Each structure stands twice: as structure tokens, then as C-alpha cells.
Amino acid sequence: MEQNYTWLLEVAVLIIMARVLEAGFARIGLPRIIAYIVLGIAVAGFRYSAGVELTSVTIALANIGIMSLLFLAGLESDLRQFTENMKSVGIVALGGVVGAVATSLLVFTLIGRSFNESLAMGIILSATSISITVKTFEELGALNTLEAQLVIGAAVVDDVIGLALLSLLHGFTVKSTDVIHVVVIPILAFVAWFGTAYLANMLTPRLFSMVSRLGHEASVVSIAFALLLLFAYMGSTMGLSPILLAYALGLGIAGSGYFAQRIRESTWIISSIFTPLFFIYAGSRLEIGELSRELPAELTTIILVVAVALTSKVIGCYVASRAIGLDNIRSLIIGVGMVPRAEVVLTAATLSLGIGAIKQDMFAGTLLSIPITQILTPIVIKSLYTRITPPSQIQTFPTPFPIQKPIQTPSRAKQSPPSKP
């Protein structure tokens, strides 16, 4: 049987177009993820006009891209630091998640959406992407302030909570919800997440030391990537999101010193190539024909999704920040700093659309909320900081987590491998 190699052309064209569009967006100061979404929407338009779908190989590579991105995010963190100073950042993170879920349930059930669909929208909007917020704090010289460090720490925690809650959506559809799924799956998700991180932190240094004795450094990277795919598969068979354990595995391996650095560098290469494909794929899931036919009726929902994305985190994180003793302005800064949405939200929306947990209008609203939240957040934070005077009054705070800036090319400085016993 003759092989169909159309996917080779498809992947090549999408990667080239993504990089060209990304460069253009960077020149006008917009995040690169917006370029990928725009390209994905263009692909959706092509699907609608030509009736051509993305190949299964492209979709598979897109999924490898998003798993490697979450794995890399874990490798950039540290399990020990993650578990320290959890009280304050945990309260802020939980406030943001509760704010997103509660606001979504209130707003969308009032306009006639089902409880399950409203809950799914709240779970989707519970995650935060703070790259643009960190950049804003950095420009203001406020990266080591109390509010900045709380935002950075809380964003890590609420991503974990969001990924765990996302697994809840894999346990039921909008047609059926039972108490067992609602109670057991989130508990299973948290146990699996922390268990994976802890076991990886305890066992992988010894494993990689054994593998390195094979005499080929690439063996360690290969085994780490195989573990990533294995844990993603195990998560999916347990009814959890395949990406849930990717971050946990990376977080556990992060403590492996030299081996973690080597794995980080190789994972960055895989992620930089294939992650854009996932966001293009996500944008391509937009059904142009369905939206164009019912746009007047669906416009209200789209606007409400954007409004909830802009306000829910502010409300939840503001209340939580006030509860731990922060003043009004700093609480507002934290709330606004948690507003931006990007990778995890788009991932959750795409997976939710795939299992029928949300409809096309809510998905379209989620896509639209990403550029809007990314553009408005720096403007509002800079405005709020003008009300904190004088600069000497800015409080500093010991960093509870590593500063997580946008992923950049890792250092290529040579490191000596650990001495063999």
C-alpha cells in the first residue's frame, strides 16, 4: 500500500508560517501564542472553505509538543521550593480558582447553560499564564516585591489545581455526572500528581546514573522522554488528562542536577519545534461555518466568556489577598496580575471541546480572551503601581518559587557529569 506523506508538507509549512508570523507579532509587542492562534484560525478558515482536515500525524506531533511544554515547565521548577511557603501563595491561588469557577457557574447558568458546561468553563478559566505579568513587574523594577512573588507562586499552584480539575472533565461528559466521578477523580488526580513528582524526585537520579553507565549521554534523554510518554499514557488510562503528569514528572526530575540540565536542554528543542503545532491545532478547532451561521445568538456568550476571564481572577485573588492581610492596592495588583490566560487555558479549552464539555461559542470566547487579557494586564498594573508611593515603601518578599520567565534557549555552557562511584 502506498504511503501518504502529505503530513511532511503540512508540518513543514505550519512550522515555517508560525515562525514568520511570530516574528511579526513580536515586532509589535504581542505574545507569540497570539500568532499561533491567529494562524490556527486561518487554518480553520481553510478547513471550512476547502474541507481539508489536519492529518493525524500533525495532531500527534501537536500533542507531543504540549506534553513537552508542560514537562519543561516542571523541569524549570523545583519540588522542594514548590512545597515551601505554601500557605500564602496557596490561599491566593485557591482564591483565584474559586473566583473563576464560582463566577462561571453564576454567569453561565443564569443564561441557561447546563451546570456541567458552566463548571467546565470555570475550570478552563482557573489557570493563569503570567509571562506578561512577570515582564511587567520586571520593567517596573518590582520583581522582588511581595505582590510580584505572590503572583508568581500562586500561578504555579493554580496551574496544578487547574490541571487536576481538568481531569474531572475526563471523568464525565455534559450528559452524565455522578458523585463518584466528582469526588474520586479530583482526589485521584492530586494523588497521582504528587505521587509522580515525589517518586520521580526520589528515584530518577539513581535511574539516570545507571543509564549513563551505558556510555551514551543521549540514553538519559531518551529514557526521560520515554517516561514522559509512559506517564501521559498512564494518566489517560486512569481517566486523567494526559498532560496532568507531564508537569509532575518534570518537577520531580528537576532535582536530578546535571541530568536535569541535559534533559532540559533537549526538551527545549522538542518543545520549541512542536509546541506551536498544538496552538495552531487549537485555533483550527474553531468551526467557522457554525459560528458564522449563529453569530448573533452566540455573541452574548462570547462576550460573557471574555468578561468572566477579565473579572473572575481579580475578584477571587483580591478577596484572598485581603484575607492574608494585604492592603487594597496590592490586593488589586495581585488580582490583575493573575488575569492573563494563555497555554494552559487554551489546552484545557481544546481538550474540553474535544470531549464535548463546552460548545463552539465558549471556545471562541476563550480564544478571544487570550489576546485581550494579555494586552490589558500590563496597562492596568502600571496604572495601579502609580498609586504606590514612594518607591521606598515597596515591600520585598523572599522568593517562594523560582522566577519563571518566558522559556528561552537554555545555556549551552558545558557541565561536567557527576563522577562515577
Care to describe what's here?
This protein is an all-alpha fold. It has a single domain (79-269, 290-393), classed as Na+/H+ antiporter like fold (Up-down Bundle). 73% of the residues lie in helices and 0% in strands. The chain is built from 16 helices and no strands. It has helices at 6-27, 32-50, 56-75, 79-83, 86-110, 115-124, 131-139, 146-169, 179-212, 218-237, 244-253, 258-284, 288-323, 328-337, 343-354, 360-385. Helix 13 packs antiparallel against helix 14 (328-337). The longest helix is centred in the C-terminal third of the chain and has 36 residues, at 288-323. The protein is globular. The relative contact order is 0.18. The model is unreliable at 173-177 and 390-421 (pLDDT under 50).
